[in-house]
Amino acid sequence: MLTWSLAILYMVNAFWFVLRASDPVIQADGWHFLDVFVRKAIEGHLHFADFFVKRSVDDHAQPLFKLILLFEWRYFDLDDVVGAVMGVFAAIACALIFHGVLMRGRPTNSGNGVPLLAWAAICALLFTLGGVGMWVWPLVVLENITILVILVFLLAVWHAHRNQRYLLLVAATLVLGISSDDSAFIAVIAVLLGLLLMLRADPEQRLTSGWKIFAIIVVCEVLVRIGYAYLPGGAQTTHGHPLVPLLGVLIERLKEGGWWQWALYPLVLPVYYQSPLKPAHAHVWLVVQVIMGVLLLVAHVFFWRRALRGRYNLPVFMAVCMMLLSYGWVAGIILWRVSAFGNDYLEQPRYVLLYAEQLIALLLMWAGAHELRSNAVTSRRELATGWHPKTWVPLVGALLLLVVQVPQSIAAWRMPKYEWAYYAKQATEIDALARDPVHTKDCELVNPVCGSSPEIRRDLTQLLSANRLNVYSSKVQRWHPYLPALTPVVVGSAKTALGTRKTGAN
C-alpha cells in the first residue's frame, strides 16, 4: 500500500503539473508542422506520407506525434497541452509495465521488498519534476510514447524467446520501426546486443530457436527502413551533416573540456537536475555532482559485471537492453547536438527523460538479480526476509531517489506563475506578427517564425487566426485563463478561409 501510494502520488503530481504548467502555445517545431501538416488537414488533402514528414534529413519522423497533432487540431483547437497529457498517460502505462515485470509471479505477501522499492524508485524517475523543462514542453513529454512502444517491443522479444511464438514479435517490431524511426533503429541494435549477451552469459537461455528471433527482428527492421526510403516528401530540406566532419568537430569539443561533461551530466542530471544551493556555492554543487557521478560509474561497472557473468530473467534482460539503449541515445545527443551547439547542450532539461533510462536499468538489474539470488539461497533467515547483505547500497540509492523528489517538486511548483507570464507574452507576440508581420521588434519568444520572411510570418499567423486555432481559440483561452483574449485578425486574405476549418482529412 505504501508503494502504490507513493507511485500514485508521483503520477498525480506530474499530471496536475502538466495541466497547470505545460505550454499550450504553438512553438519551435510546431510552426513547421503547422505549415506542412496541419495546413493539409485543414484543407482536406492530408495523406499517409504526410505523417512521416521531417524538418530535415537529420530529423526523425514521428508519425504517432503527428497523429496526436491531428487529434489536437480536430477536437481541441490545437491546444498543445493535450499532447502533454497523453505523454503523462504513456508514462503511467510504462510504470504499470515495470510493475508487471518486477512483480511477475510473486505473491503479494512474499515479504520481499526489493522489487517494490525498485518500482517506487522507477516511478520517481518517470514522474520527477526535477527537469521542469521536459514537462512544460509538450513535444518532450510525448517522448514517453516512444519509450512505451520500446517497452512493448522488449516484452514481445522475451515472449518469443520463452514461448517460441513469433507473431507478437513481428507485430511489435513493425510497429516500433514505423512509429519510432531512428529510436527504433537504436532500440533494435540494443536488443540484438542484449540477446547476444544473454545467450553468452546464461547457458539456460541458449535455445535452438534463438536465430529465429534475430532473423525476424532484422528482416522487419530492414523492411521498415526500405519503406521509409521510398516515402515521398520524407524530408523538407536536403541539408544533412556528414559523419566525418562531425567527428572532427567533436574532437574540438573534447579539447574544450567536454570529456567530463559527456561522462557526468547523463549520469547525475536525472537524480537531481538543478542545484538546490545558492549561486555562490556552485563549486560545492559541482563536487556533489562529481561524487554522484563516480558512485554511478561504479554502479555501471557492477552492472556489466553482473550482465556478463550472471543468469538472466525478464528484469535482467530488460535492464541490459535499456542500458544499451540509453548509451545509444547519449551517443546520438553527443554526435548530433553537442557537435552543433557545444558541450553545455548536454544540460538541456528535455534530455533528462532519456538520461533516466540508465538509472531505471540499474534498478531493474538490482531487482532482477536479487530475485535470482533469493531463489538460490538456502538460509532460512534470507528466505524469510527476502534481503541479501549486498542490497543495502542500492537500497540507500533507491531511498534517496524517493526523498529528493520532495525538494525538486517544491521548486517546480514555484514556477507556473512565471511560465504563465511567458506563455501570455508568446501569445501577444503571435498576435503582433499577425497584425504587422514586417516589424518584429518584440518577437524573441516565437522563433523560428520571427526569423522567417514577412510572407511566412503573415501566412502562418493568419492560418491560426483565420481558423481560430491555438491562441485565437476561445476554448483554449477558456482552458488557460492566463492567455490574453485575442480576437482573429483580418489582414488581407489568408490562404485558408475560415469556412474550410475542420473539413476532414483523407
Terminus-to-terminus distance: 48 Å
Give the beta-strand count: 0
Gyration radius over CA: 24 Å
Q: What quaternary form is this?
A: single chain
The number of helical segments is 20
Given helix and strand content, the structural type is mainly alpha
What are the low-pLDDT stretches, counting only 5+ consecutive residues below 50?
A: 234-240, 377-386, 493-506
Strand content: under 5%
- Average pLDDT, rounded to a whole number, is 84
Helical proportion?
55-70%
The tally of domains stands at 2
| Largest sheet entry | none
**Shape type:** globular
Q: Report the order of strands and helices.
A: HHHHHHHHHHHHHHHHHHHH
Q: Can you describe this structure?
A:
The protein is mainly α and 506 residues long. The protein has two domains: 2-24 and 80-107 and 114-373 and 387-412, no CATH class; 416-500, no CATH class. It is 67% helix and 0% strand. It contains 20 helices and no strands. The protein is globular, with a radius of gyration of 24 Å. Mean pLDDT is 84; it is low at 234-240, 377-386 and 493-506.
